[in-house]
Amino acid sequence: MAQDMKLSEELTWRGFVNQTTYKDLNVLDGAPITFYWGVDPSADSMTIGNLAAAMMVKRFIKHGHKPVLLVGGATGMIGDPDGKSEERALKSEDEIDKNKQSIVAQYKQIFGEHGFEIVDNYDWFKGIGYLEFLREVGKHVPMRQMLGREFVQSRLSEDGNGISYAEFSYSLIQGYDFLHLFRENGVTLQVCGADQWGNSIAGVELIRRIEGKEANVYSAPLVVNKVTGQKFGKSEDGAIWLDGTKTSPTQFYQFWINVDDEGAESYLKIFTELSKEEIERTLDEHKKDPQRRVAQMVLAQHVTGLVHGKENMMFAETITEYLTGKEKISGIDVSAIKELKDNIPSAVTRSDGSIVDVLVSTGLAISNTEARRLLNDNAISINNSKVTRENFESSDFNNKVLLIRRGKAFKDSALVELEQ
Asked: Residue 320 is part of a domain; what is its CATH number?
């Protein structure tokens, strides 16, 4: 980022502006602020929805502000009810501990080059008694404030599913986190995603009522696919996880390669640390020949490299080059074959086997009739060459494998191995 761009300007340019208690964002351009950002261990991995907020946190750090990264061992024992229409199932302590370790590892991967402190809110909640919490916190929180929350109104409505006292009290726990970190770590700002605004405000109010001091919240908008209208996150179908065992580096890389042109520009700003000049050059090159998908390739390289490391990114890139035909399948090795089989459908056939059968067995066609129609319509390719015949030939196989594809999208591909 150009040195003359202030944090307030960069947050605006990257699309990280949403609700905030600050009356003037220019305060972020001044003296260092100690702030915190937290993730609950509701799963054993963050998603790219969390990554968007993490990238905003990195901008705060790069501009000199001091981060405290919280893993919610205590809040994770209850679960955030906001946005949920039904009561969450409680997780075991063992599962929460396992999830916490995974979140901490991802913090270190994403923020590894920066100085930061990691805290667990279970460490200060485990010693607090019920009566102490009611006196210390509950006494200072008006019921009107809690009942006014939209998700509470929804859950208590005639058509709602109700809400337990535990989930109703979740915002008090998160509010106390802010109060504790204000007292012990000098934290005066919480940064969060838009869906955490209400919980974060609870902390601001506690600090004001108990300490008589000012604290603030800065939230980022949720990242939304402009074409589908869906948000990125683990609650959506087809969530993209940061854990390579849940979303492999190849799947992760291909997710970014497949984003639409309309979203690519905003994703480059949100999910990479490329400067304004670098992003503008990338977009200019992309517009010269959109079919080359330059913007998507740059995006995939940078985000996959950050999350999974350069080696995994380069391997994912190689797999994608096989799928797109940039790299000839004749040179494929055993590890790449295994990775392909883990990411796309596969089949085994004879050298003169039925293309129709393979299309159906791999899900590229739903029936023999559709398979034949696709062949007749010139919609099927083998190793990037169109075919209309219904049977394979020996020359189709290179290194005893081939790639068959329906249409142009390489996600609609299958690996076919020659029967031994």
From this structure: 1.10.240.10
Question: For the chain, what is the domain count?
Answer: 3
Cα 184 vs. chain centroid, distance in angstroms?
A: 31
* Residues 91-122 pLDDT 10s: 999 999 999 999 999 999 999 888 899 999 99
Same-domain pairing of 184 and 158: yes
Give the domain extent around 256.
Answer: 248-327
pLDDT, greater one: 232 or 87: 87
Q: Report how far residue 48's alpha carbon sits from residue 45's, in angstroms, rounded to the nearest whole number.
A: 10
Q: Could you tell me the CA-to-CA distances from 279 to 118, 250, 291, 343, 397 in Å, in that order? A: 32, 23, 18, 30, 41
Contact residues for 288 (Cβ-Cβ < 8 A; gap 6+): none
Q: What is the pLDDT of residues 174-231, one digit of tens each?
A: 999 999 999 999 999 999 998 888 889 999 999 999 999 999 999 999 888 777 777 7
Would 148 be classed as within a structural domain? yes
CA dist., res. 303 & res. 273, Å (int) = 9
Beta partners for residue 20, in sequence order: 218
Tokens, residue 316:
């994912």
**Farthest-apart Cα atoms in the chain, separation:** 80
- pLDDT confidence of residue 264: 93
Tokens of 253: 């890389």
Is residue 406 within a helix (H) or strand (E), and if so which, with residue range?
A: strand 401-406
Q: What are phi and psi of 264, to 5 degrees?
A: -55, -40
pTM for this entry: 0.86
Res. 378 pLDDT band, cuts 50 70 90: very high
Which of 58, 73, 33, 52 lies closest to 115 in space, CA to CA? Answer: 58
- Coil, strand or helix at 148: coil
Alpha helices in 42-129 (DSSP H): 48-62, 93-111, 122-125
| Same structural domain, 50 and 163 | yes
Residue 243 confidence class, pLDDT cut points 50, 70, 90: very high
Could you give the CA distance from residue 177 to residue 200 in angstroms, rounded to a whole number?
10
**Amino acid letter, 364:** L
